[in-house]
Write the structure tokens for this entry.
Amino acid sequence: MNFQSLQNFSLSLRNNKLFELFVVAIIIISALLIGAKTYRVPDHYLSIIRILDWVVTLIFLFEICIRFIADEEKKRFFTKGWNIFDSLIVIISLIPIEDSEMAFVGRLVRIFRVLRMISIVPELRVLLNSLLKALPQLGYVVLLMFIIFYIYAAIGSTIFGAINPELWRDITISMLTLFRVMTFEDWTDVMYETMAVYPFSWIYYLSFIFLTAFAFLNMVIGIVVSVLEDEHAKEREEKEAAEGKPTIEDLSRQIEELKLMISESRKVD
Amino acid sequence: MNFQSLQNFSLSLRNNKLFELFVVAIIIISALLIGAKTYRVPDHYLSIIRILDWVVTLIFLFEICIRFIADEEKKRFFTKGWNIFDSLIVIISLIPIEDSEMAFVGRLVRIFRVLRMISIVPELRVLLNSLLKALPQLGYVVLLMFIIFYIYAAIGSTIFGAINPELWRDITISMLTLFRVMTFEDWTDVMYETMAVYPFSWIYYLSFIFLTAFAFLNMVIGIVVSVLEDEHAKEREEKEAAEGKPTIEDLSRQIEELKLMISESRKVD
Amino acid sequence: MNFQSLQNFSLSLRNNKLFELFVVAIIIISALLIGAKTYRVPDHYLSIIRILDWVVTLIFLFEICIRFIADEEKKRFFTKGWNIFDSLIVIISLIPIEDSEMAFVGRLVRIFRVLRMISIVPELRVLLNSLLKALPQLGYVVLLMFIIFYIYAAIGSTIFGAINPELWRDITISMLTLFRVMTFEDWTDVMYETMAVYPFSWIYYLSFIFLTAFAFLNMVIGIVVSVLEDEHAKEREEKEAAEGKPTIEDLSRQIEELKLMISESRKVD
Amino acid sequence: MNFQSLQNFSLSLRNNKLFELFVVAIIIISALLIGAKTYRVPDHYLSIIRILDWVVTLIFLFEICIRFIADEEKKRFFTKGWNIFDSLIVIISLIPIEDSEMAFVGRLVRIFRVLRMISIVPELRVLLNSLLKALPQLGYVVLLMFIIFYIYAAIGSTIFGAINPELWRDITISMLTLFRVMTFEDWTDVMYETMAVYPFSWIYYLSFIFLTAFAFLNMVIGIVVSVLEDEHAKEREEKEAAEGKPTIEDLSRQIEELKLMISESRKVD
């Protein structure tokens, strides 16, 4: 009985709009604290920041407990990605860190608390989901891009390795250099250097730029528009179904009924 | 009676195409004056510019008065954004400014007079409105981008702060540096500098570029196309309605009438 | 009679596929000659190039004469843009140029002979026309962009003029600098320079980049897609009309006929 | 009889999912070997790499033999592009190469073995085909771009050739410089250099950027979206046909039947 009333209280608190706004405010304060720590602040301010940090951690702990108690099915609570993420962030924040090395990790973990914004605001979660939905379709595009990168990097480090080891030493460094070329970042400096030895090496760079830039553009636009059109088609169908507008199928059924009526009237005759 | 005729005169003047062209010409002259002032001009030309500037201000004052008098409902005049903007620009231009500090502000205000072009030309106003309509939908995208920027900036200033304070001193400067990386502006210089200390820091830059560039592209295209399709669907419906073409609903109604006719004819039998 | 046969001969020659290919080949040779002249070639080759250049000019003259004679309506010949362009290019090429200054102009004119490729190949002409069709719709976008550029350039040269006259001297130079910022070309160098004096001047650059880059992207995509959809809708309608598929209007007419039949059959009763 | 059973064995092996995965694994190992060779590895590792390389070549030879034996029509085997590609790669890998010059070619050939990934994974082959399908439509766009580049390069090397021979020496180098300008790579450095001699040369650069960047963007997006819409229209039609939904034509036929029934019933009367 006692637990039941606690659960009801938690549920009403979790669904309370004001409580949600309060948590959002706490996340923003947490983000500001993270930002403040990057500035050179006097020591007494630093201790205030540390206290506020603990307050934020405790409120987060309280909020996750409320959410856990409010949940109908306790077993399924930790199967949801965001719940696991929120819990992990809070638990790691709770571990007291004294020595400097762990403090560094602790600070990094606190930064990821800003991501809780996405787990709280529903619109951001929808946005992220629509992005993730396009990912599997992009998988093979990324693989194709990687193959192009790998082949060009292997050729590059084989031919240009002796010219500038800084850029073409091994296949990893060469791929980084090619990514730089793909973003057009001082790519002519890279090209002119190798053109001094191999005058026709511009073919290597131009073919690479065309293959990656064009293929990439072509495919990304294609996939984005296709995902979008699917969504629109679905929306339109749902809308039409909801409005109860007659479809061509309805018309067909109506005409069939007409035929039946006429044939019946003939029988009557 | 006297005021009524004044209002009628104002109304006819305001709706006059020639008067509109005249105002557009004055705005262009005003823009040219602003441009001319940025060149090193001899003193006697400068005084001509100053006189012309006053003439422009007075014509603007005259035009806004005409528009105010012509308006049917005086109270609603200042609820429209462009009217407030136009009035403010004229009033601030009227304040005589002598000392150098205020003169600076005065010059800046005069520059914004070019924006009156948008308030006068209807096509530009339509363009701006369609842009503003897409803004609220972009709000959450901007928020998501800001969260990504904030987290990476916090990590960046924590880890790289000691390497180059110029670029990673605090969270604000780090965000500016990350914006630079996002525009591919000499981003490899920034990366190579930190790679000298942390050889794996290229993961930080590449993941950031993928997250922002791809997410941004994906979402902007998505929203633009979706806004566009909505408009097209609306246009098509309006066009069909205007042309009086029969819809599937009309067909359904016609068939229902047929059924009624047949069942009636049966009753007659 | 004699002229009639000449016209017929010209017409058959003009419509001959082989003759068209021959002209395309001559244009390509003309382009190669232009390219060859930019290399350092020995003097005896130069005289060969000069002779070939004259041959090309004479063939072009011959071809334009054939086209003029073949044309049914001589008066309308010079109302078509491409005919005027072709004739002008040939006539200017004919003028003998000796002194070095005119030779320079003559060389430039010969370069534009490559554009004859577009006037000959129909597919290229279609491509260019579809580009030109989108231009008027882009007119107001370009005007809006220009207003944004003008205002920012005026502010820039007012505030930053004293910091670096090379970049912000007057409004023209400032607009060029802003165009550079818009293409992300070493824009941080420009920004860091002014940030040393005005630490908040990054607001100026970031707001400018957002306004131009985003507005531009938004509108260009919008217009491209909208032009495209119009074409598709037109194509679809034409296709459906050509295939003789029944439309909803046809159905409506058919049902009306049915009603008439039934009401008539009732009268008969 | 003996060959028939061999063929059956080959066929079952070729269609075996595990065998396909094994070949993919071998290709990945082959790719890793290529990558490993770009690093500075101790000599005894190098001999291991050489042995593994031979193992990979032999497995590839075995796999292509299996595919050849399994094929029903031996004559058509070498008409398929990927079969020719695979065979060529294997045969060249088999040639024993000792001297350093041929070894260089041998290494390059081994790099292209990574491309076998595309010939094995069906999804990648589909992706590549959809890219190749858009190519012919892009042909004329590329031709138009090339004409713009050629004309600007001819003008550039004529006017700017004396200013900086490094960038504007002849038409080939000028086209490379213009490609650099198109990618916005330090293009202002190129421009400022010529503006020192010809102050109005910014017109040359800006008009070039507008022509190429805008024309390119406009056309690429246009073609991508149009290819996409065609595919979607096809898919939709196929889907509707498969679902057996009534079309407007079906309705028209139904109404015609109704008319027939009524006119018959009248005759009966």
Q: What stands out?
A: The radius of gyration of chain C is 30 Å.
